[in-house]
Amino acid sequence: MASSAPKGLTREAVLVAAEALVDRDGWRQLTMTALAAKLGIRVPSLYTHVENVEATLGAVQARAHGALANRFLRAAMGKTGESAFRALAEVLRAFAAEHGGLYELAMHQAIDRTAVAAAAEPSGAALVAVIESFGVADPSLDLQMNCLATLHGVIALDRANLFDGTIDVDAAYTRAVTMVVDLLHHTATP
To answer: pLDDT tens-digit profile of 121-162?
Structure first.
């Protein structure tokens, strides 16, 4: 039977459980009831650690951006130009494959803009550094978003099963990455 006053339960434990549920079931399926059941507690006990489901999703979304940022930074370290961009692209795709629910939440409109902006800042900085390594001076937000949108488009179509085995997804993703690399080469400041 679920306890109403769990000993040792922390905000971190609640968020880790919420991440697991979001990753498994998708962020739209997260409820306080499901979260309490996963933790083996009663719903009221959650409110000591999180305000509500929206605040919980906001925290999980920021954590997903933080996890992706850590991967981006490691992938880009010591690389420039095409090899750096291809490394970021592979990290993005791998994160989506390994953490589909978290990826979907991360790619959704920010729930807690301040927390997401702080967590995503290292990813943005890594992307800017990689774009600049192509010789692009002061990359615009539009250019950064074009790079991300091209990759995300293939990932999203694949996750929605719209390729349905009729298209080689690996080849499609490689072409998308190559298109962005070509764009960045052509955008380089002379």
So the answer is: 999 999 999 999 999 999 999 999 999 999 999 999 999 999
Contacts (Cβ under 8 Å, ≥6 apart) of 29: 21, 22
Give me the numbers of helices (H) and strands (E) for the chain, helices first please.
Answer: 9, 0
Q: Which domain holds residue 45?
A: 11-50
Q: Is 36 helix (H, G, I), strand (E, B) or coil?
A: helix
Residue 109: pLDDT above 50?
A: yes
State whether 77 and 29 are in the same domain. no
Is 58 contained in some domain?
no
d(CA 75, CA 87): 6
Confidence check: pLDDT of 118 > 80: yes
Looking at the structure of the chain, the number of domains it has is: 2
CB count within 10 Å of CB 34 equals 16
In the numeric block, which tokens belong to residue 39? 């933790």
Which is nearest to 97 in space by CA: 148, 164, 52, 158? 158
In a shared domain, residues 36 and 87: no
Q: Check residue 111 and report its DSSP letter.
A: S
Please give the model's pTM, rounded to 2 decimal places.
0.91
